[in-house]
Design a protein that fits this description.
Length: 403
């Protein structure tokens, strides 16, 4: 089945879109979830809902109940317990296939840096009827190297080899420095002596499986990836409680953006919300900076159109990229893609009706944001590199998204 085959064709007056490129997403849970496990994946919180409340009572929860039940043979807005019972009756594999095929995504660029028993890129692509490439998470790469050595020199050699090796097959890199430290890092690459000293300290103090949060090593990873010339995704803005939100404002990256420009690296600012206008400004001001509209649209639900309008105020239209940031639940692919389509159509059709935009321009810009910009940035068009194969061996089943 070709990508997007299960998605209804546009009606009269609707903007036609190509199969979407989801340039930032994650695997889904390979197994049936109980009610609490499902609901825990509807939030960025790392805790259960407050007593007497439910994460279904959110914009994202309502969007799931609007868009997903009909794909499983139920009425839209059916009660959560009926939806979850139907989901279990069908089984996770059938649910995943139905929902991913309905999302209209042709290309998945998958951040493989999260632990858990998740579908790898090849499995995600097979279920969704599309293609997939890997996005390599820098901190996870460094932590895997650290698991095998206590020597700073061998660690740094391993990281260098790992980054260069990943650059041969991956579509790009991703950093969660925003979580591990914040984006208020010095802009310049750290001196080799400082990197070596930081590696020695971190390895000496690190417990098995410990996370990398040293600011010198985080900067070293950013610059190592930038020098490959591949796109570098940077988490900004909204996320789980591991981050300190005011330290995730993309404007804190301004000096780094200036410093890294000579490398030729494209920087993609993920999410942004509630600083999405700041991300749009940076995409406006710097030719190598792009902004992502993912995550924010899903979590703002019925208000997604207003959030997308904020991105479109300043960002050049060739600098915005669609994503879902879906993790754990195939429902998040459906919600992310449907809210994007609805918000984009609502905005652009109104501007056409008002005479501000020509219809042909609206259709062209819609196709750019949906897929064309990502194909250009990541080289995922017809002449792009090979699909990603099987990922790492599955680990334990995930809870709230670990960073």
């Amino acid at each position: 089945m070709p990508p997007g085959a299960d998605v209804p064709t546009p009606g009269a007056g609707e903007l036609p879109l190509p199969p979407l490129v989801d340039h930032h997403c994650h695997g889904v849970v390979r197994g049936d979830l109980d009610d609490a496990g499902f609901e825990g994946l509807l939030t960025e919180s790392d805790a259960p809902a407050a007593p007497g409340t439910s994460f279904f009572d959110t914009q994202l929860g309502f969007a799931v109940r609007r868009w997903c039940p009909p794909l499983l043979g139920l009425d839209a807005h059916c009660p959560p317990e009926r939806y979850l019972a139907r989901r279990r009756a069908l089984g996770w594999e059938e649910v995943t296939r139905r929902l991913l095929r309905a999302a209209g995504i042709g290309t998945f660029l998958v951040d493989t840096g999260l632990p858990g028993d998740l579908t790898d890129p090849a499995q995600l692509a097979a279920a969704g009827g599309g293609t997939a490439r890997e996005i390599v998470r820098l901190e996870a790469l460094a932590e895997r190297v650290a698991d095998g050595t206590r020597s700073a020199s061998s660690f740094l050699t391993g990281v260098d080899d790992g980054v260069r090796g990943a650059a041969r097959t991956a579509a790009g890199f991703k950093s969660v420095a925003a979580y591990r430290h914040g984006l208020d890092l010095p802009a310049e690459p750290p001196a080799p002596a400082r990197v070596a000293a930081a590696a020695s300290r971190w390895l000496a103090d690190r417990a098995p499986g410990g996370r990398l949060a040293d600011p010198v090593l985080l900067r070293h990873l950013l610059w190592s990836a930038a020098r490959t010339g591949l796109p570098l995704q940077l988490h900004t803005g909204f996320g789980d409680p591991d981050l300190t939100l005011h330290r995730c404002d993309p404007l804190l990256l301004t000096d780094f953006i200036r410093a890294v420009r000579p490398t030729g690296c494209t920087l993609v600012l993920l999410h942004g919300y509630p600083y999405h206008r700041n991300a749009a400004y940076l995409a406006h001001a710097f030719p190598h900076v792009y902004a992502d509209v993912g995550l924010a649209l899903a979590h703002t639900g019925a208000r997604a159109e207003a959030v997308l309008a904020g991105f479109l105020e300043l960002a050049p239209f060739g600098k915005l990229l669609f994503s879902t940031d879906a993790y754990g639940l195939p429902e998040l692919y459906v919600v992310g893609s449907r809210l994007f389509r609805e918000a984009l159509h609502g905005l652009l059709s109104r501007w056409v009706a008002d005479g501000a935009w020509a219809r042909a321009d609206a259709e062209r810009v819609a196709a750019l944001i949906a897929a064309g910009n990502a194909h250009r940035v990541y080289g995922t068009g017809a002449a792009s590199g090979p699909r990603t194969g099987a990922g790492a061996e599955p680990g334990p089943r995930p809870g709230p998204r670990p960073r």
